[in-house]
Amino acid sequence: MSRPEPTSTDVAQLAGVSQSAVSRAFTEGASISEAKRARVIEAAEQLGYRPNLIARSLITRRTGIIGLAVGDLSNPFYSQLIYKLSEKLQQRNFHLLLFTVPDRANSDDLLEDVINYRLDALVLTSTEVSSHLGARLQERGIPVVLINRTTEDTASSSVASDNEFGASEVARFLVKQGHRRLAYVAGIQNTSTNIERERGFLRALASVAGVTVQHISGDYDVHKSLSVARELFDGENAGPEAIFCANDMMALSLMDALRYNLNLRVPEDVSVVGYDNIEPAAFSAYQLTTYSQPIDEMVDAAVELIVERVSSPGSAPRQIRLRGELVVRASVGVRHPSSADTSAHPSSAASA
Amino acid sequence: MSRPEPTSTDVAQLAGVSQSAVSRAFTEGASISEAKRARVIEAAEQLGYRPNLIARSLITRRTGIIGLAVGDLSNPFYSQLIYKLSEKLQQRNFHLLLFTVPDRANSDDLLEDVINYRLDALVLTSTEVSSHLGARLQERGIPVVLINRTTEDTASSSVASDNEFGASEVARFLVKQGHRRLAYVAGIQNTSTNIERERGFLRALASVAGVTVQHISGDYDVHKSLSVARELFDGENAGPEAIFCANDMMALSLMDALRYNLNLRVPEDVSVVGYDNIEPAAFSAYQLTTYSQPIDEMVDAAVELIVERVSSPGSAPRQIRLRGELVVRASVGVRHPSSADTSAHPSSAASA
DNA sequence: TTGTAGGCGTTATCAT
DNA sequence: ATGATAACGCCTACAA
């Protein structure tokens, strides 16, 4: 049976003190004698009283609740990120209120809810959310923190890996392994992650003579991998020697398509590289070479940004970039130095 | 700059009406003239006013916020479940507050928070949460809904698949395919999912002559797969012909261990079956045969249970069981009918 | 240190 | 239909 919730007044009565005394007993660093606090706590326990955080927030203007907009949870990168973020925030007495943001649908609903609940802040991990939303929240004084996503708008804090650098590392690595006909499988066009990775990859290759890069869009959609594979190895010209996918999920499904639909061997016939270093990338079936995102550091940084903005509303937003590292696994092979043409030069091969 | 939040009083002033009128204008089905409502809405928009849900909840005693305890987000089954649950709940104007519950750690913290925030209900998906917690919440009138988990305690509503039946289907299928030396890789011992699947599998096999079942614990831990594989195929006796893992994640990693560490072929040398039908189970690299959980129906049912218990506090909790189906893929092979009986003997492999 | 009283923003009750 | 007024449960001056 649910008795009527005990309130601070009930506790006060039982303990024979004022209601404010009860409030103080449950407030860190409030001025109250130890004796009285003890009496209050005892009465509270007897009644099973717990301070109502919602009521408290009405006056403190802080709920301790932070909105979290997520798009694609089927990508382990995000589920892992979210889990760790939630864990770390809980340690600081914050909690995440989940918002699923389907396609580019009504991100206005999200806006409404965030405002209506007077959330302390909003974290955006979804690549699909409009930046218009960010602006509207800023002007209401609700801090916005972007994770794995950036925006020109400097009103939002953000944490992201150095995608451009990471992608350039991938490019250099592939070239070093002797690959010359390359391909880039893009993510969703207008996302910051895709733009930066694409730029990093292409720029690093631009200066290398004899390298060709095929560009094809994959939209971060694992279901497009088969058609991507077919297009890359279409009759016309020879297929690429190495393929860089804008994220691991696409890379894994592309590997499957290459191996089981096109009957190509990875890495013997074609090499594949991803980005993120999600757990499945390490599975024996894939052994995907990838550029890792420093997920723990990213989460730590995000927590700092959040706490910073929430506890001192005056503080300026910050943009943070973190570097990961190239994780070399078996999905990339070595090409023999085709001493031939334009520029490519020796690099001896060692193969597994 | 963050102007002071406009309140209903501000709107009332601007619109030249009472504060209660503003409240009514934003309340579905409140008695107010269309004319007045329009005036209020206009003034509200002008000021950027949005009703404060937190303040409202103080008197309605409903926050629209539901706690969600999750354990292992690295298992796609749960991340998918959560995503869909959140989606469906949002459509009903509910939102999920995330609680990560690490090991069997202090589930008391969770309890505290749920109470302190006066959440409308708590959904438990974690297999690790103590049932003591459920009881404490019930007595405070906070409904508890279990997903993919059951408990003796009938005070909680629950949605789960018919694990016992599903596992028995797996057993019958393996027997029908000619397998006789079987193995069960268990999940975490005292979880309802593991208990039920194990029982279903073993019972269905008990009545079949000539079948042996090896039992080994895997703890739903993908990192134990290698040692599990080694133990199963330890020198002594011949290894199993088919292995049923208590969930897909273990099955996938076990397949990797079998293939890449023990150099066994799946399904030619040994068959593997999982439970859940997570997305990766369909990957070409695995083609895992598995028993599916009807995740959409489970989510729908859960939403119903939640809404039911929240909106009519008098309603009794219900326990729901749903059936999935056997999804046959290439990870299971066929053994030739070894017309003989009791024990192991030659059986050549049929392959794809 | 302690109690009193006012207010946080809303909904609910009660007249009108 | 409308407006005053009292909750909702708590925090925080203010005064003592």
Number of strands of chain A: 12
Strand order of the largest sheet of chain A: 2-1-3-4-5-11
Pair with the most extensive interface? Answer: A-B, 58 and 58 residues
CATH homology group of the largest domain in chain A: Response regulator
What is the CA-CA span between the terminal residues of chain A? Answer: 68 Å
Q: Poorly predicted ranges of chain A (pLDDT <50, ≥5 residues)?
A: 339-352
In what range is the share of β-strand residues of chain A?
15-25%
Largest sheet of chain A: 6 strands, parallel
What is the CATH domain class of the largest domain in chain A? Alpha Beta
How many helices of chain A does DSSP assign? 12
Count of folded domains of chain A? 3
Q: Helix share of residues of chain A?
A: 25-40%
> Would you tell me the structural class of the helices and strands of chain A?
alpha/beta
The 3D shape of chain A can be described as elongated
Radius of gyration of chain A: 26 Å
Q: If you consult CATH, what is the topology of the largest domain in chain A?
A: Rossmann fold
CATH architecture term of the largest domain in chain A: 3-Layer(aba) Sandwich
Provide the succession of SSEs of chain A.
HHHHEHEHEHEEHEHEHEHEEHEE
